Amino acid sequence: MADVLGTELSDEKEAEIELKKRQKRPWEDLHRSGKIGITAELPETLGFYDISAARREQPELSADPSLTRFISAELTRGYFLEHNEAKYTERRERVYTCMRIPKELEKLMIFGFFLCVDAFLYVFTLLPLRVLLALLRLLTLPCCGFRARTCPYCRRSSGSRLLQPAQVCDVLKGLILVLCFSMMHYVDYSMMYHMIRGQSVIKLYIIYNMLEVADRLFSSFGQDILDALYWTATEPKERKRDSIGVIPHFFMAVFYVFLHAILIMVQASTLNVAFNSHNKSLLTIMMSNNFVEIKGSVFKKFEKNNLFQMSNSDIKERFTSYVLLLIVCLRNMEQFSWNPDHLWVLFPDVFMVVTSEIAVDIIKHAFITKFNDITADVYSEYRASLAFDLVSSRQKNACTDYSDSVARRMGFIPLPLAVLLIRVVMSSVKLQGALSYSCVFLFYLGLVTLKVLNSIVLLGKSCVYVKRANMEDKLFERPTPTPSSSAKSPSKADPARCSTPSGEFKMEQIPATPCRPPPSSSVTTQPTPRTDLFPPPTTDDSPVIPANRPPTPLPEAEPEQPAPSLSKEEEGEAETVSEVKHRTPKKDLLEIDRFTICGNRID
């Protein structure tokens, strides 16, 4: 009896297990997907439905895994790009951006090149005239008298400065040029050329790379030396003995310009050796050095400010290379007695160097903008920023000369390059007779005409670029007036006086008038000096109290009321507001120069 009961229980368990297996059959998913319909007529074999019979009845919904069908599917397989429209649109925009980069980059390069030309021609044309005017003012000093309040001839008060700050800077620049030019006469260019020519090709390649790095370091530190000299010479001083600090700064600036001029001379000599080598191997290696620059900059992360610094550096390097090529051509033409046929011998090498420079810049900027998702319109912003520097230097509240602003923005210092060019021209061209001096005078007038026309065109273009970028409001903002103390050290400039390369200044708009040019302001208006540098003498207007009169008792102070307690939420809001007030403002392109970025310095 027990065996019969056990058999019945085991049969019931097997039936339940079989029912569960039927509920978990794999073709039920096919039934749910609609590929194979399980009907009542589907045959059942050993408790399972015959799926193969169903597949044979519906041959159009299945395919045999054969090689022919696989090849046919590969040949006829299709896809739709609109399923990922955003990705392919972005890729197409990148291609269009790379195609626009050469045009936009060359617009910036051409504008920056003529800015450097303007600053370079200023040294040869207007700077000598400004120095003569400053010296003429010094010579007319005795006519004023030292006790007269106002001179009847020049209408100048006795309490005014002998020279304006801009004239002091011009005289210092002129003295630096004269001293460095006289010191360059002791450097023999021919001996340096033959010394470099005797070296091996690999050694010359290493020397040229070291000279490029040294040129950037000299440019970085040299403008700081010149700015320190200008500020030390023009800052307000309480005692005359404070002016002694100008002397060490002046000798430091002369030493810097002289060393930088020698460094550029070595660069020009190395390039001249590369031009005159028989197998042109050195010139090829020097050109390949430009393509190595692509590897060092393309695969780095760039932001807009970093790209702006690199663009300014490329403008400066291109202009410097053109001046070096001019020096090389002058030296070679002198060696061949100014034979015009030799100029066509130099032309292929010059064209090769210029072409490689342009090609490297285009490739470098194209891939940097591609890898960092920067649009081509950013170069118009860079051009507007450079134009803003030019326009702001002509404003009534200008705090620096335009050539100095170009030097700070691009790292281009024209004084060493001008000293070297004058030295090479004076040694290459021999002047004899009155006719030669007449030609020199006519050439000088031509340079002055070129400088004036270039300045007029650049100023007009700059105004157009500033208007397009909607930067007119910033032209009429002024720094916050802060009292300056003459007890400061000469190396620390007043932050409210001018925008220095290593710092920011806080700008506030004039509240009384809207942001529009005042009626008397123009590009020819002379800047006005600050009146807060010389505080007026304090006058005691309080009435004199007699000695026998008792002092007036002071009113009793009211008891201080306790400050109302703040809740936790109000305290949190107050802390947030204070953090926002003390947060450092983000710099824009106008407050960035070439030597500001230290952490991400990429040239």
TrEMBL record:
Region of interest called Disordered, as start-end residue ranges on this chain: 476-586
Transmembrane segments: 171-187, 246-269, 412-429, 435-459
Cellular-component GO terms for this entry: ciliary basal body; endoplasmic reticulum membrane
UniProt superkingdom: Eukaryota
Subcellular location(s) of the protein: Membrane
Membrane association type: Multi-pass membrane protein
Composition-biased stretches (Low complexity): 483-493
Protein's GO biological process: cartilage development; developmental pigmentation; lens morphogenesis in camera-type eye; ossification; positive regulation of cilium assembly; retina layer formation
One Pfam family, short name: DUF747
UniProt keyword list: Chondrogenesis, Membrane, Osteogenesis, Transmembrane, Transmembrane helix
Transmembrane listed as a keyword: yes
InterPro entries: Tatp1 (IPR008010)
Protein family according to the UniProt entry: Belongs to the TAPT1 family.
Protein name (record): Transmembrane anterior posterior transformation 1a
